[in-house]
Amino acid sequence: MAERTGLVSVGGNPLTLVGTPLSVGDKAPAFTLAANDLSPVDSSTYDGKVRIIAAVASLDTGTCDTETRRFNEEASKLGDDVVVLTVSMDLPFAQARWCASAGIDRVVTLSDYRDGSFGDAYGVFIKENGLLARSVFVVDREGVIQYIQIVPVLSDEPDYEPVLDAARKLV
């Protein structure tokens, strides 16, 4: 498995990303993740839609909370042809609890807790702590990655506008 350092850090300390590095133009890797009710959700569920896939460390942290709330707000403006997925290593029950308390109704939260295969396939699994690096992938209707943002400092929010612009151009 490929390992890369120097792309992300926390508290000034570099972290190691494990997994396949992806590039714009690559086919988005298939995945199966756990929904809030533990049922499996296959990436093919979203075929034909533009996808914003946001990986976060944990919904129970301030920055991940803020990011997911922002994407929930923006999702309503993007229309039904765009789906926003937030993926974390949080247990599905924790995701469901967080969504209920935060009033999240447009973002789909999915868990990679079973085997970290999403993190590996997208190259954003953090070796040091077993979480996902803050990153955003915009995937077109044909399943091709059109935009990638890996946030260099784990505690920073993504730059939302380029993400949203990339999604809008695909609708």
Structure characterization notes:
- This protein has 171 residues and is an alpha+beta fold.
- The termini are far apart.
- It is globular.
- 26% of the residues lie in helices and 30% in strands.
- The chain contains 4 helices and 10 strands.
- The chain has a single domain (3-170), classed as Glutaredoxin (3-Layer(aba) Sandwich), CATH 3.40.30.
- Strands 7-6-5-9-10 form a 5-stranded mixed β-sheet. It has a 3-stranded antiparallel β-sheet with strand order 1-2-8.
Summed up:
The chain has 171 residues and is α+β, with helices and mostly antiparallel strands. It has one domain: Glutaredoxin. The protein has helices at residues 62-78, 92-102, 117-122, 160-170; strands at residues 3-10, 13-18, 32-34, 40-42, 50-55, 82-88, 107-111, 125-126, 135-139, 145-150.
For the sheet with most strands, the description reads: 5 strands, mixed
Number of helices: 4
Helical content class: 25-40%
Number of strands: 10
What is the gyration radius calculated from CA atoms?
A: 15 Å
Low-confidence stretches: none
**Mean pLDDT over the full residue set:** 97
CATH superfamily: Glutaredoxin
What is the second-level CATH architecture? 3-Layer(aba) Sandwich
Report strand order across the widest sheet.
Answer: 7-6-5-9-10
H-E string: EEEEEHEHEHEEEH
Overall morphology: globular
The termini sit apart by 35 Å
Structural class: alpha+beta
State which percent range the strand residues make up: 25-35%
Any key phrases for this structure?
alpha+beta; 5-stranded mixed sheet; 4 helices; 10 strands; Glutaredoxin; 3-stranded antiparallel sheet
